[in-house]
């Protein structure tokens, strides 16, 4: 993704004791004076993503955002987000976020329905789905 955007990237190496529990997290790369964007597939309790946000801020990132595909947001996730150094958590609407958005001003939701609809249409008509990775059809 960084190559396609023409930006530098850093990565976290994390070790887990068990699900939802990170035992160690190491930042590889330089984020000083940069805008950091965390990218992940899902956010459940948000402990890991908010811990990563803290590490990025401590490493000198000017601003920290997170974007995840599926915002599960269980337990104290909304409180964890609000109290974190994340400026914004962006999630898709694969899971309804209507109530969560009211409770958490840092939460932003992206509608993926048009894209998923286009995937279904292309599949039905035998057209390329991978082409969607390179262009937005709407």
Describe the structure.
It is built from five helices and six strands; from the N terminus they run H-E-E-E-H-E-H-E-H-E-H. Strand 4, helix 3 and strand 5 form a beta-alpha-beta unit. Strands 3-4-5-6 form a four-stranded parallel sheet, covered by helices on one side. It is 30% helix and 31% strand. It has 138 residues and is α/β, with parallel strands linked by helices. The chain has helices at 2-5, 47-58, 77-83, 98-103, 113-124; strands at residues 11-18, 21-28, 35-43, 63-71, 88-92, 107-110. The mean pLDDT is 94. The longest helix is centred in the middle third of the chain and has 12 residues, at 47-58. It starts with a helix and ends in a 14-residue tail after the last helix.
List the helices and strands and how they pair.
Blueprint: H1 2-5, E1 11-18, E2 21-28, E3 35-43, H2 47-58, E4 63-71, H3 77-83, E5 88-92, H4 98-103, E6 107-110, H5 113-124
Parallel strand pairs: 3-4, 4-5, 5-6
Antiparallel strand pairs: 1-2
Q: Could you report the average pLDDT, rounded to the nearest whole number?
A: 94
SSE ordering: HEEEHEHEHEH
Q: Report the total helices.
A: 5
**What shape does the CA trace take?**
globular
**N-to-C CA distance:** 21 Å
Strand content: 25-35%
What proportion of the residues is helical, as a percent range? 25-40%
- Spatial strand arrangement across the major sheet: 3-4-5-6
Q: What is the radius of gyration?
A: 17 Å
How many beta-strand elements? Answer: 6
């Amino acid at each position: 993704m960084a190559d396609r955007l023409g930006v530098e990237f850093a990565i976290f190496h994390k070790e887990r004791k068990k699900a939802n529990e990170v035992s160690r997290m190491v930042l590889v790369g330089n984020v000083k004076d940069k805008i950091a964007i965390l990218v992940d597939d899902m956010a459940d309790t948000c402990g890991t993503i908010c811990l990563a946000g803290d590490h990025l801020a401590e490493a000198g990132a000017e601003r920290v955002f997170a974007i995840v595909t599926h915002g599960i947001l269980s337990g104290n996730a909304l409180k964890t987000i609000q109290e974190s150094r994340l400026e914004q958590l962006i999630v898709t609407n694969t899971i309804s976020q209507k109530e969560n958005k009211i409770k958490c001003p840092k939460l932003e939701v992206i509608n993926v329905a048009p894209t998923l609809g286009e995937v279904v249409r292309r599949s039905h008509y035998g057209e390329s789905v991978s082409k969607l990775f390179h262009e937005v059809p709407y």
